[in-house]
Specification:
Structural class of chain B: mainly alpha
Radius of gyration of chain A: 21 Å
Strand order of the largest sheet of chain B: 1-2
Helix content of chain A: 25-40%
Number of helices of chain B: 3
Number of strands of chain B: 2
Largest interface: A-B, 74 and 53 residues
Number of strands of chain A: 11
Strand content of chain B: under 5%
Oligomer: heterodimer
Largest sheet of chain A: 11 strands, mixed
Shape of chain A: globular
Order of helices and strands of chain A: HHEHEHEHEHEEHEHEHHHHEHHEEH
Structural class of chain A: alpha/beta
Shape of chain B: flat
Helix content of chain B: 25-40%
Chain lengths: 496, 95
């Protein structure tokens, strides 16, 4: 195996660490140097090199001691949405400028407890609201991939755009992401990496800055299916601090990766064949179907009749929950407070603080949420959307009850688009990016994006597999088979 | 359902976000685009369907009613824009 240390997968690094062939300090230094040289990607927005090296030294001692878990000594990037003690955590929003949490999110606490190393905090869309990382207070994160020799800057997707860019450019071995409507899977597909959204409740939300609490779920973004399996094991588990976290045992996800999917039933939902879908996406989907069939799976056509209503339901439920969650940003307890004029009272303080602190997309969604929850509209919008959500979940329940083990769909309706290309489009055009992923959040299911091919301009394209609730192990194994058959090994050429 | 400028103003106030008078027409038009998209939900027959409250049916856990945290006022106040004498300070609230 050749290549720089920062290009390793988690599994490769773990094996070398355990064999004494490399130290965590060496891995960490290689990543820090790569980050140093990748300012143009704007992926890392807060750097924590000293903390990283300290964690790396501790990990090395632990590895020598011989009781190191798989994540021990692995350098990671952490999405800015996770509260990390003493380190800026501002959800890419000006309203949380200067905020340094006094506590650690459960996910990062578990990862650090397993010996993982934090290199810094990663760019994202403000409060995870966006599909292109263009709503960030830090400016755009940039996709390391380009269209052939065209130097146009492309989006790494969103909201976990910094995580996607950093992993694809080998600035870290893997990264944390969060996914409310597709924010792990869409960026993973746009940069040719693997991203898993676990079943709702598999990973604790405690200490993750809330967007839409009934949809948010954290997960791994990594260079392979195996790495996602390893990292999920360290992130998952019951947490009394999150009342929606499931009290279920965490299986050994990596041990489930046999690659044997003979006899598995894979559903192909006809409603995901969208009008205007690029031929390449359609072709890739057909190839994925053939790959799984060649591996011995049984392919069946299925129907998920309420698919069309997932995005409209999402754009009621998510803003409603956001308007309520983001009410806490009032300029009193943390973050930004506007400078007040003579005679301004508390209402002016709230209104000016929130107008200055929130960006345009966040303001828009908070106000939409306020509207759909307001007296007279609650039933017409919010309750109707929750009823439709129940129907969307029922569609999946029925497919699984009929024997389907996993569902194969495209991950995104297109490859990565240019930064700024959607600037003049109305907000709904941007929302369509999540058309294949958002159903999974509404139904609380696990979903994984696997890189499976490239478009004619050389950009990565991904396929999505959707699994039964709590069966991430089985889903990962199907993804592992797909990954092996697709053989996606391309890396972006280094221009940054 | 169409949102006029007056409704946009009212929603902005309910959300406690200051929107300049001149920005209200554009805001109203964005709301209308999004709500137009949401209107599709009216096509769905939801008779007899309960609104979803929890995606995974589970019983909320109970715990003993005892104090598990506290006694750290300096940590609570450490990020406050204005904290004085162990309190959060805000502009005058009561006339």
């Amino acid at each position: 195996m050749t290549g720089a240390l920062n290009e390793l997968t988690i599994a490769e690094a773990r094996d070398r660490l355990r064999a004494g062939a490399v130290t965590s300090v060496e891995l960490t230094e290689a990543c820090l140097a790569a980050i140093e040289g990748a300012g143009a990607l704007n992926a890392f927005v807060h750097h924590t090199p000293e903390q990283a090296l300290e964690q790396a030294r501790a990990a090395d001692a632990r590895i020598v001691g011989g009781e190191a878990p798989s994540m021990c000594g692995i350098p990671l990037g952490i999405k800015d949405l996770f509260c990390t003690e003493g380190v800026p955590s501002q959800a890419a929003s000006n309203i949380l400028k200067g905020f340094r949490p006094e506590y650690e999110s459960t996910v990062t606490r578990q990862l650090f407890g397993a010996g993982a190393v934090m290199l810094g905090k990663l760019n994202m869309d403000e409060f995870a609201m966006g599909s292109s990382n263009e709503t960030s207070c830090y400016g755009n994160a940039v996709n390391p991939w380009r269209r052939g020799n065209d130097a146009t800057a492309l989006t790494p997707g969103g909201s976990s755009g910094g995580s996607a860019s950093a992993v694809a450019a080998d600035l870290c071995l893997a990264a944390t992401g969060t996914d409310t409507g597709g924010s792990i899977r869409q960026p993973a597909a746009f940069v040719g990496i693997t991203g898993l959204k676990p079943t709702y409740g598999r990973v604790s939300r405690w200490g993750i800055i809330a967007f839409a609490s009934s949809l948010d779920q954290a997960g791994p973004m990594a260079k392979s299916v195996r790495d996602c399996a390893i990292m999920l094991g360290a992130m998952a588990g019951h947490d009394p601090m999150d009342s929606t976290s499931a009290d279920l045992p965490v299986p050994d996800f990596e041990a489930a990766l046999t690659g044997d999917i003979r006899g598995k039933v894979i559903g192909i939902p006809k409603e995901y064949r969208m009008e205007g879908m690029p031929e390449e996406v359609e072709a890739l989907w057909a190839e994925g179907r053939a790959m799984l069939a060649d591996a011995g799976a049984k392919i069946v056509d299925i129907s998920l009749p309420h698919t069309k209503y997932a995005l409209p339901a999402y754009y009621v439920i998510a803003p409603a929950e956001a308007s309520s969650n983001l009410a806490r940003y009032d300029g009193v307890r943390y973050g930004h407070r506007a400078t007040l004029a003579q005679g301004d009272g508390i209402t002016e303080m709230y209104e000016k603080t929130r107008a200055e602190g929130f960006g345009a997309e966040v303001q828009r969604r908070v106000m939409i949420g306020t509207y759909v929850l307001s007296a007279g509209f609650y039933d017409a919008y919010y309750n109707r959307a929750r009823r439709v959500r129940a129907l969307i979940k029922r569609d999946f329940d029925e497919a699984f009850a009929a024997g389907v083990d996993a569902i194969l769909t495209p991950a995104t309706p297109s490859a990565a688009f240019g930064l700024g290309e959607m600037a003049d489009a109305d907000p709904v055009q941007m929302y369509l990016n999540d058309v294949f992923t958002v159903t999974v959040n509404l139904a609380g299911l696990p979903g994984i994006a696997v890189p499976a091919g490239r478009d004619r301009e050389g950009l990565p394209l991904g396929l999505q597999l959707i699994g039964r609730p709590w069966e991430e192990a089985d889903l990962l194994n199907t993804a592992y088979a797909l990954e092996g058959a697709a053989g996606f090994v391309s890396k972006p050429g280094k221009w940054w | 359902m169409s949102i006029d400028i007056e409704t946009a103003r009212r929603v902005a106030h309910l959300a406690r976000i200051r929107v300049e008078e001149g920005d209200l027409p554009a805001l109203a038009s964005e709301f209308n685009a999004i709500l137009g998209f949401i209107e599709q939900l009216n096509e769905v027959d939801v008779d007899g369907v309960e609104p979803m409250t929890s995606v995974t049916p589970m019983r909320l856990k109970r715990r003993d009613d005892e104090v598990t945290a506290g006694g750290t006022p300096e940590k609570i106040l450490s990020n406050a824009p204005d904290a004085r004498e162990g309190f959060f300070a805000v502009p005058k609230v009561v006339e």
